[in-house]
Fold:
Amino acid sequence: MPITFKSKATGDLIMLTAHAGALLGRIGKSVTGPGILTVPEMPAALKVLKGLDDASQDTAGAQHDEPVDAMDEPVSLRKRAVPLVRMIEEAHAASEAIVWGV
Structure:
């Protein structure tokens, strides 16, 4: 099931629950129930999300023991974070919160 992030400063961002949960967990938030990322929390969240390395796997990422085709390569959590990072940056610049599950 998808999670929709909303802010008055940006368009909606739709993300699979597993990916959203992995990212939100890194910043101390959860996908269960409604949530909010307030403007004062955004700098710390950005620091964490921008600090992810390319080896980071989300909870839905497949672990492969054999070589995989380029189309089957797992996507790092850092790459999955890019749209959320951009949303947080824009919302922070406009001093608007981000909500989900509402």
Remarks:
- The mean pLDDT is 88.
- Residues 1 and 17 are 6 Å apart (CA to CA).
- The first strand starts at residue 2 and ends at 6.
